[in-house]
Structures are given as structure tokens and as C-alpha cells.
Write a structure and sequence with these properties.
Distance between the termini: 58 Å
Radius of gyration: 26 Å
Order of helices and strands: HH
Number of strands: 0
Oligomer: single chain
Helix content: 55-70%
Largest sheet: none
Length: 104
Amino acid sequence: MSAARRRLPDEVRSAAVRAWMSLSCTLVTLMVATLASYAGSWLLAPALLATGVGVFATAWCLLEIFISRQIAAQRMSRPNSASPMSGSRYAKRRPDRSRAPLQY
């Protein structure tokens, strides 16, 4: 794995898996609806209903991916988080060692 691509947090990966599963089930029910319409079968109405529910579920899962990515990004940008680069924008003030101390 290259250093440029970091591993996604667990909640983002699980949301992505749910989205792919929902999309695949939606595509299967769409194919069943298409074949049922060609055959004139009674399965057309339930397959169309399942396809509509699947489209809604897929959209919900994609929204969940977006929200969980935003939450993970906010969690990693906080100070004192687990990432080594987290909180780097909050520069710590350190005394400048190059200047000599004031002498009275």
C-alpha cells in the first residue's frame, strides 16, 4: 500500500461496504423487474417496489459515507488525537533558542 493513500477509518469502510451491498441488491432487483416485464409475470410489481426501496437505501448509504468521512476528518484534525499529523495547525509556542537571554 502506498504511503500517499491512508487507510479509511472503520466506520467509513463499513458504510462503503453497506453502500456496495445495497447497490448490488438494487441492480439485481432492477434486472428481475426488467425480465419480469418482458415475460409479463406477476413479479413485476414486487420487483419494482423492491427497486424503489433499494434506490432509497443506496442514497441513504451514500449519505452515510459522506457524513462518516466528515466526522472522521474532524476527529483526526483535533488536537491530541491519534494521528501524528493531527493538530499540526495548532503550533506550539516554543522559545527561540537562537536568541541570547536578556542580561541585566
